[in-house]
Design brief:
Elements (H helix, E strand, L loop, with lengths): L13 E4 L4 E4 L4 E6 L2 E7 L3 H13 L5 H8 L3 H14 L18 H9 L5 H12 L5 H8 L15 H8 L15 E3 L45 E4 L8 H7 L1 H11 L14 H13 L13 H8 L8 H11 L2 H17 L7 E10 L8 E4 L4 E13 L4 E8 L4 H17 L7 E5 L6 H10 L1 E6 L13 E5 L12 E13 L2 E10 H6 L6 E5 L17 H9 L2 H13 L10 E3 L5 E3 L1 H28 L9 H5 L2 H25 L4 E3 L8 E3 L2 H24 L9 H10 L2 E5 L3 E6 L5 H16 L10 E6 L1
Helix pairs in contact: 1-2, 1-3, 2-3, 5-6, 9-13, 10-12, 10-22, 13-22, 19-21
């Protein structure tokens, strides 16, 4: 072997050293790594691909660790990790940055050739000619960029004259030549035997006096073991627990129902475009973002595609944040979302996830801190008015959400609930049951006009009474008994559950049934507790009019209203675990319906009428005192009324009463609300289509989670820890291995034996379902690591 020369006379090399490696920079930007007097690998510093290959080679062959290679390469440790991970996943091709072109190319090859061939033509004239000839609108700036080569440049051939990469990608050996391959991008040398610290052979020629050779001979047969390998099918993923939801999401099929809603509304989204991930993957990505409690869509940029992609069946590909937001604009439509939401309700009923017979209606307010001048609403948690958005939910008797509406406070809460009740009636009548729909709501909807509308619709309502007169415990003479099951052989008879008093009352000329009650458990804790009162129209619904309806007993009516707290529990869960207050978009639009406000004239008139009524009440009190005075008891009433002092009071009362009647008539002629005048800019409102769409996906996720929870309840018998343990199992992560006919998900086990046993039982239950992944047709199999 010929002696190698290292340094020329006019060249000074640079040497970087760490404990185990020495990097020597030679002529023509060539860098050689040495260890124990042996040349390990060489590359050209201006070639990014060969530099990455050298870094991976040092890691794969365990010549250096991540920290040492990072120092010598001038990169961070995380960059070395990323290159190594990409190489292990995709081989050498994973080290090459592959940029895709624009998805919607407006500059076609014909337009590109026209721009380059055009001479002595201004950019504005070229824009007009392109518009007339090709029908494409371009800006002068874009034409300038294309003309100067800043945009739509021809892509560089990554593999031209690159024999080393070509041999690795094609698997063919590079023929031996006597001439060194000067244009090679990556230079490898064979390691002559094991490297030891005791090997004292000197460097050829000495580093201080000889010049570094331009290239080292390439020996492709000496590549380290596993440097080029087949792609592994087993992936370590922190999101492997998401596969537990997959069988239930496939049953609900939100993407399929959304396409059906689009077809019914003559809407279409082309999901087969180049580089498009498809609507289903987009929806599944959003659902899993909610499931794994990402605080916002932007947080998705920190996800490793290799770990998250297994959930979507796309391996190393996941939608970017830009793609997620772009689909919101292309897919979300208010009419389609409304139709899709009702289609989902029918699917929930079909899968026996919810029960439509009894629904709870309530609103959840979201504070808004943006610049749009939204109308204010009162927030009970903060106890002051502020700009808010309002979500109105309908939940079933178990507290599971059914559907919702989202709007600002410019719309009436009562009108929104009324429209939702009409939609629920339509869904309820589709079942063919001759039974009334039962609805329960809070005091905010306490209104006799609202009650009358519900009577006309044939809806049985239950709500708390407002402005109730005090009721004492002695008035609660009737009892509701509750039968407890036998406990350890001890026979327990019926016990009193409620003390109640039922009667018919009239509220502003409207007849309702009022029930005052007090629970025995509450009475034991607080002897001075006051009874609560509810109102209902259940007495209007009989077996004769509704053959499939079993009239509700007093205990059932009380339980129905008391179980409304399950809806409040859902609000709490969704707010903390599903980021219910998150607003995905702050886009604005001009209001179709002008913003209105209360007429200030009516407020002034009401204030004056109230003042006059107080004066009339005081005059009545004075007249009553004069008539009942002790001195005048013996005088006849006619004589007392003729007295001058009484006559003056009576005259003032008539005058004030006439004035009150006049103002009342004037008040009735004034409109209640007037338009808000915007002098500087038009009235704006938030576009809440994306918010409502994401909330519907939250309902899909919650109901799918409840289906999973029903399965897990057979595996773990402590209901207090059921939800927390299920979340812990899904958050543990695991491995996903894809084989020919099956996808094996191995979940990490929890340390507590009882929890591990529950996880094993859950895997058995899930495997018994024999779920197949729709995209690949492969069976889903669960096990515990």
């Amino acid at each position: 072997m010929d002696q190698l020369t290292f340094f020329g006379e006019g060249f000074v090399s640079t040497i970087d050293q760490v404990p185990n490696l020495v990097a020597v920079s030679g002529e023509k930007k060539t860098v050689v790594y040495w260890k124990s007097h042996f040349a390990i690998v060489a590359y050209k510093n201006d070639d990014a691909v060969s530099k990455r290959m050298a870094a991976v080679f040092l890691i794969q062959s365990k010549v250096g660790n991540y920290e040492e290679v990072a120092i010598l390469m001038g990169w961070s440790v995380s960059t070395i990790h990323n290159f190594t991970r990409s190489y292990r996943a995709n081989g050498p091709i994973g080290l090459i940055k592959q940029k895709t072109g624009p998805q919607h190319t407006k500059v076609t090859p014909e337009i590109l050739q026209f721009i380059h061939n055009a001479k002595k033509i201004s950019y504005n004239k070229m824009v007009r000619l392109i518009k007339e000839t090709y029908g494409v609108s371009l800006s002068p700036d874009m034409v300038s960029y294309v003309k100067r080569g800043k945009a739509y440049k021809e892509q560089m051939n990554l593999f031209s004259d690159d024999y080393f990469l070509e041999s690795m990608l094609t698997g063919e050996m590079i023929p031996k030549t006597k001439e060194p391959l000067k244009e090679s991008n990556a230079l490898m040398t064979e390691t002559p035997g094991p490297l030891t610290e005791d090997d004292q052979r000197p460097l050829p020629g000495g580093l201080e006096h000889e010049s570094l050779m331009e290239t080292l001979p390439i020996v492709p047969t000496s590549l380290p073991i596993n440097l080029i390998h087949e792609e592994k099918t087993e992936v370590e993923s922190n999101y492997a627990g998401g596969f537990l939801l997959l069988p239930f999401l496939q049953k609900i099929d939100p993407a399929g129902l959304f396409r059906q809603a689009q077809e019914e509304n003559s809407e279409h989204v082309n999901s087969s475009e180049p580089h498009a991930y498809g609507m289903k993957n987009w929806m599944m990505t959003l659902i899993f973002l909610l499931w794994f409690q990402f605080s916002s869509i932007e947080q998705f940029k920190f996800v490793q595609p290799r770990e998250f992609g297994v959930l979507l069946g796309s391996r190393n590909r996941t939608p970017s944040v830009k793609t997620l937001r772009r689909y919101f604009k292309e897919c979300v439509d208010e009419r389609v979302t409304e139709n899709w939401m009702l289609q989902l309700v029918r699917r929930y009923v079909q899968l026996d996830v919810i029960e439509l017979g009894t629904l709870y209606f309530d609103g959840h307010k979201i504070p808004y801190y943006g610049h749009v001048d939204l109308p204010k609403g009162y927030t009970s948690s903060r106890r002051f008015p502020m700009k808010v958005l309002e979500q109105v939910f309908a939940n079933d008797q178990k507290g599971r959400p059914v559907f919702l509406r989202v709007h600002d406070t410019s719309l009436s809460f009562r009108d929104t609930v009324l429209e939702m009740i009409k939609d629920a009636l339509q869904l309820w009548n589709e079942n063919g049951k001759r039974s009334p729909l039962v609805v329960a709501f809070d005091r905010e909807l306490y209104d006799t006009k609202f009650f009358s509308v519900l009577d006309e619709l044939g809806v049985l309502y239950i709500t708390w009474r407002k402005w109730d007169t005090p009721v004492v415990l002695a008035d609660l003479t009737d009892l509701v008994y509750h039968q407890f099951p036998d406990t350890e052989g001890i026979q327990e008879g019926p016990t009193v559950q409620y003390h109640y008093w039922c009667r018919n009352i009239t509220v502003q000329g409207y007849d309702v049934e009022a029930i005052s009650f007090l629970a025995t458990e509450k009475l034991k804790k607080d002897q001075d507790r006051n009874p609560s009162t509810l109102v209902t129209n259940s007495w209007r619904f009989t077996k004769e009019d509704y053959p499939d309806f079993n009239p509700l007993s007093t205990g059932e009516i009380i339980d129905t209203l008391c179980h409304r707290w399950r809806q409040e529990n859902y609000f709490r869960y969704a707010k903390h675990e599903q980021r219910l207050d998150y607003i995905p978009s702050y886009e604005t639009a001009e209001r179709e319906v002008p913003l209105t406000k209360a007429n200030p004239l009516r407020k002034a008139l009401k204030k004056e009428i109230k003042k006059i009524q107080n004066e009339v009440d005081k005059l009545n009190q004075k007249i009553a005192q004069r008539l009942t005075a002790r001195k005048k008891k013996d005088k006849p009433l006619e004589e007392i009324l003729q007295q001058k002092s009484i006559q003056i009071l009576m005259t003032k009362k008539e005058e004030r009463t006439a004035k009150s009647t006049e103002l009342t008539n004037k008040l009735s002629a004034i409109t209640e609300r007037i338009a808000v005048q915007e002098d500087r800019e038009p009235s704006l409102e938030l576009t809440l289509n994306s918010k409502q769409f994401l909330d519907v996906l939250r309902i899909v996720l919650y109901n799918a989670e409840q289906m999973l929870k029903d399965v897990f309840s057979r595996c773990y018998n402590d209901p207090r820890d059921l939800h927390a343990l299920l979340r812990a199992i899904s958050d543990q992560g695991g491995t996903v291995e894809e084989q020919k006919d099956v996808v094996i998900v191995r979940l990490k086990a929890l340390h507590i034996p009882a929890y591990r046993k529950a996880t094993e039982k859950l895997c058995i239950e899930m495997n018994a379902m024999e779920t197949k992944i729709e995209k690949t047709g492969k069976r889903l199999f669960f096990s515990v690591k």
